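Why do we care about 3D structure at all? Because function follows from shape, and shape follows, mostly, from sequence. That is the central idea of this module. The next example makes it concrete: a single protein chain, its amino acid sequence, and then its structure expressed as tokens.
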Amino acid sequence: MEDALPDPELEGPETTTFRGLVDGEEVGTGTLTLRPDGDRELVQEIRGEAFGRLAGTVETRFRRRSGALLAQSQSIELTDKDREVFAESAAFRDVQVPQMGGDISAYPREMVPAPALALAFRVLPLAEKARFVPPVWLTAVVYWPLDVRVEKREKVAVPAGKVDAWRIRVRPSLVAVAQALDELSATVVPPVIAHVAVDGQRLVRLAFPTGPSRTDPPGLIEAVDLG
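And the structure:
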């Protein structure tokens, strides 16, 4: 992946409501909204509540320019019973950050903040066996390539209904470090599996490990309403 994400050119807000489960038990709910902010910005906003006490928001802003989306800024807030637990903000444009090797430079044009992967799924040209390796911003000034592979097209049942979806496998890419290490990682580290609707390319299901071991209970986020 060498180009910035394409602009979906939404004319109005698009909201998906989700529920979250751990080991089959519902632990929270949330919404993911994409909305234009004027002609020059696209915003993805995630809001959620979990375990009866946690609440969080993630707002990621993209600059819309010549049909492309350029990561501009992000803010994250997490509270426990209204007490702030964690807050982070980041700027991605017109800044330079440390790189491996000791130099500094700007973020890659095609970089995607990790919470905005749902937006990436929404606009990438998905097709069977398609592969993308976007640099994904993780935290602080750290970004890393992610291996995104479309495995197949299949039907998936979620509370929002039965959906014809692309099954997408997501995991960190370690090819730049060592091919053998990347292959080992693929067999040892549990993957993240996303299902994205063929029609409209909205994220409808995300299965993920809650820890690094395959014995850790599975986590699941699935669409309840595609409003």
